[in-house]
């Protein structure tokens, strides 16, 4: 196959490209430039947007002996991922920019351009497995290394795009294996630190980034009874389930910790309350994507509602082509934020994914702003 | 590297010695350097004392722009205007922008016409109005992207009238068109080794006798105090040998690559829909080895990939340090729209280029352009 290897400049994508070469594919490395004004050097744990990262990717491609290009995806990235990030926070939701990047850039703009130029597939350093099932379908599965699994952020691509994806690191049992392989291959990025932060927030200060972009929008922090217990500079800075950084002047009457229950940007209001008010019974997602037939009501599965979050038991209450509602009562899910991805699994296999639109708490209380869309 | 340059390099590498030293080895090294200086000077119509060695064309351009600005402003504090063409190489443009930002210079960009040729009337108007406050004029001998030869005779005549020194970057021109410092009347001229089949990191600024230049590199006072730094006799011998041979072969070389270039352009314009030749349409007013084309609706880097996969090497004409393709400042200055400028390809013909290369390019281009057009301008939102 003619394979386009997306190379961020990190160790994972470099080893993935190397494995694609070993597999006998005709591989070309492409580094996506996502910022018009890239920093010279990587800072902290960022790992994709600096000039240094671009030259690391070039160096790896040279070692592998494959052609290397930089494609400018900065406008697309800005217009989709960054704009969505700000719009979602401004609307009181909690976006996952990596999901949006996979949806709009990596497995959309990049893949489309690759296919148009005659490539057969796009290869990335994501930790996930593509499995051809006995029934002829192709499935997205969790990586062998559960700790590194990234199927959660990939599920948004859906089955058509999965057919064009290659993830050579899906069977890796640990990151140490990838680093050792990079050393053995003479790749100088072998010891490069992992990236964790949001790549376009240059200094890792997401709150500051939001404040600069959205401005100060002071408002009140209220408890479940509506009583004002504090103030804030912008509701967008809060995420459902958050405990730290509330800076409430007065302790709760019962002395127990308080959590963010709801973020209401229109009223500029943040609702706080006790942990049990975060216990989630039902989660509804929209913009659903399915990897097979829509699962019928009553299907038992597991769900994950945040990156690196736990896999918890769930039952499908209702599902159609565009939305899904799952029952997770008793699973111990707390503080599920709108805007996050809801991914449904059958064992290691991804059934589908949706974007969390609303939740219903165990207490039957629909948090303000989390308009409950189902009966 | 040219065989003549390679043999000069390897012969000189066998000897050690610092040309600034007084001992025997140093004297031998100095002899190599001075013979190279004489050889280079003779090839480009300069006197040996007018050659200032540098570590490449970029350094020579920096020395010319900054050195002339500082020297002229020291003599006359009113002379703060730096006049450069809008299509200069970044090695001239960026020092000029830097002087404006950090050293109190006033930057004046000379416009070009649709073929990339400097607007002489604009220079005349600039000098008529501000002639006594202009520190220098820098206009390249020939543009590196679109190949346009610049009207240096007129530039020099106008500048002389106002006592303004002229710098010309001739990196692209040597070995392609006749370059002669004395005959040109230019005051400072940039040369580079690697463009003529010499070693990389070699260059020179030819500085007309009597022209004051403030140093950029301070140190041991080599090169008449204008450019400090220990010289490498072997590199300079190879550089001079390359220039000497390139100049000697120029007429036959230019005729040969010019014919290849004309063939490529004619066939591409016939065979590839949406192809446009950029730069002078009159082949005698452009570098013989240069063809620059834009392909409407294509992205240059898509074409580059598709051609490379077909064994054809071209360039998009400009690259920044991160390798992010940006529309060329040269094309934009010529009035080419940003979308068209993204679909630019430069084909350069050199000593090893052949008719087979032209055939391969002509065979690969129609399919590559069709495919690149289908891939579209994907970096544009909504495309």
Describe this structure in words.
The complex is a heterodimer of chains A (375) and B (383). Chain A is an alpha/beta fold. Chain A folds into three domains: 2-191, 3-Layer(aba) Sandwich (Rossmann fold); 216-276, SH3 type barrels (Roll); 279-361, Beta Barrel (Elongation Factor Tu (Ef-tu), domain 3), CATH 2.40.30.10. Helices cover 24% and strands 27% of the residues of chain A. Chain A has eight helices and 17 strands. Chain A has a six-stranded antiparallel β-barrel. In chain A, helix 1 links the parallel strand 1 (2-6) and strand 2 (26-33). In chain A, helix 1 packs across helix 7 and helix 3 (74-90) runs antiparallel to helix 4. The radius of gyration of chain A is 22 Å and the shape is globular. The model of chain A is unreliable at 365-375 (pLDDT under 50). With 383 residues, chain B is of the alpha/beta class. Chain B has two domains: 3-248, Aspartate Aminotransferase, domain 2; 250-375, Alpha-Beta Complex (Aspartate Aminotransferase, domain 1). Chain B is built from 13 helices and ten strands. Chain B has helices at 3-13, 24-43, 57-75, 90-102, 120-130, 152-161, 181-184, 233-248, 250-271, 300-309, 329-333, 338-342, 355-375, and strands spanning 51-54, 81-85, 106-110, 134-138, 166-169, 188-192, 203-207, 275-277, 290-295, 344-348. In chain B, the strands form two sheets. A seven-stranded mixed sheet of chain B has the order 1-7-6-5-4-2-3, sandwiched between helices. In chain B, strand 2, helix 4 and strand 3 form a beta-alpha-beta unit. In chain B, helix 1 (3-13) packs antiparallel against helix 8 (233-248), helix 9 (250-271) packs parallel to helix 13 and helix 10 (300-309) packs across helix 13. The longest helix of chain B is centred in the C-terminal third of the chain and has 22 residues, at 250-271. Chain B is globular. Chain A binds chain B through residues 28, 31, 33, 38, 51, 54, 58, 67, 69-76, 79, 109, 112-113, 116-118, and chain B through 301-302, 304-306, 308-309, 321-326, 371-372, 374-376, 378-381.
